[in-house]
Amino acid sequence: MSDRNLHDRAQRHPEKAHRADNAQPKKPDWIRVKAPTSEGYRKTRDIMRDNRLVTVCEEAGCPNVGECWSQGHATMMIMGEICTRGCTFCNIATGRPQALDAFEPGRVAHAVEKLGLKHVVITSVDRDDLADGGAEHFAQTIRAVRHRAPETTIEILTPDFLKCAPEVLEAVVAARPDVFNHNLETVPGLYPEVRPGARYFHSLRLLQRVKELDPTMFTKSGIMVGLGEERQQVIQVMDDMRAAGVDFLTIGQYLQPTPKHHAVRRFVTPDEFKGYEQAAWGKGFLMVSATPLTRSSYHAGDDFARMRAARLARVAAEQPGRTA
Fold first, then answer.
1. The whole model's pTM is what?
2. How far, CA to CA in Å, does 265 sit from each of 27, 109, 231, 261?
3. What distance in Å separates the CA atoms of residue 312 and residue 317, rounded to the nearest whole number?
4. Cα–Cα distance measured from residue 108 to residue 122, given in angstroms and rounded to the nearest whole number
5. Of the candidates 60, 77, 207, 255, which lies 20 to 30 Å from 320 by C-alpha distance?
6. Helix, strand or coil for residue 122?
7. What structural domains and CATH numbers belong to the chain?
8. Is residue 158 exposed (0-12), middle (13-18) or buried (19+ Cβ within 10 Å)?
9. What's the average model confidence in pLDDT over 248-269?
10. How far apart are CA 268 and CA 291, in angstroms?
């Protein structure tokens, strides 16, 4: 993000500008990425601009944007670019959002069709200002994509709907996304400083409730490491996810967006990530992605295909003659 953009964000959101600076340690070689320059990157960027769409790839400063956009993959962020929460790890602007754009679901669907996506990831900011947290807008977007691109599989990454009636979740599940993702982000002991507006067990229950509403729907969740957590706490989060029926786990290295954000406590080594991956497979997840550069939507389409194949294989092994 440019110095000008950082200045503008600080002007709009003084609560972040006044945080104490946290020194940003030098990144190790294993998480360095090249600046995006490909023609595919520029084409994807132009389609996003032409359809006036926001992407979490840019807003959150994802390190994989060059690789993903060069392949025509982008995670679309609906309901605006201003979040009502102030998580200390996140680079998305905090403040008062604008009203929902009723035409946005159609523009998302048009972009999905134009990009020819086989799999799309749709996420959003938190919208605590809305009575349903944006649940119906998610449902409308899913239906619009289904209409314009019926062969495209749809993955959603939702907020926690913390301040909403429990039944708002039903509208999203009823729209039948292929994957319902909601990230726990970190271990419960770090929630007060990392996710002060969220509640760990509420998020866990949200994922469990999706499975209760539709046992066939794939569920997914992820955490960051390097925030100050201990290994045993990460293992406990894995157990909590499996108890809630989560199918797909992602674990990636936290990267501090600016000196005003939560500090990187350490860079977790590739060998440690491999250890987390092996532990997660042992706990029965259908799909696991645990690398320094793993993000929720990184290689999401390929991973979805692997997860679906893993379920079919597991069902075949446990109940011969039955399909998932």
1. 0.84
2. 12, 40, 14, 12
3. 9
4. 9
5. 207
6. strand
7. 3-11+27-318 (3.20.20.70)
8. buried
9. 93
10. 9
How would residue 116 be classed by pLDDT, with cut points 50, 70 and 90?
confident
173 Cβ contact partners less than 8 Å away, ≥ 6 residues apart:
180, 210, 213, 214, 217
Q: What is the pLDDT of residues 8-55, one digit of tens each?
A: 444 344 344 445 677 677 788 877 655 555 566 666 566 666 666 555
User: Which residue ranges are tagged as binding site for [4Fe-4S] cluster?
Assistant: 57, 62, 68, 83, 87, 90, 297
Closest CA to 284 of 244, 251, 321, 231: 244
Question: What are the residues whose beta carbons fall under 8 Å from the beta carbon of 32, sequence distance 6 or more?
Answer: none
Binding residues: 57, 62, 68, 83, 87, 90, 297
Q: 211: Cβ–Cβ under 8 A, 6 or more apart, which residues?
A: 217, 219, 244, 245
Question: What percent of the chain has a predicted confidence (pLDDT) above 90?
Answer: 64
Q: How far apart are CA 323 and CA 17, in angstroms?
A: 54
pLDDT digit string, tens, across residues 145-194: 999 999 999 999 999 999 999 999 999 999 999 999 999 999 999 999 99
Asked if 294 contacts 252 with a C-beta cutoff of 8 angstroms, the reply is yes
Contacts of 299 (CB under 8 A, 6+ apart): 289
CA–CA distance, 77 with 262 (Å, rounded to integer): 23
Helices (H), the chain: 3-12, 14-17, 39-50, 56-59, 65-70, 104-115, 135-148, 168-174, 191-194, 200-213, 231-243, 270-282, 300-318
One-letter amino acid identity for 54?
V
3-state SS, residue 105: helix
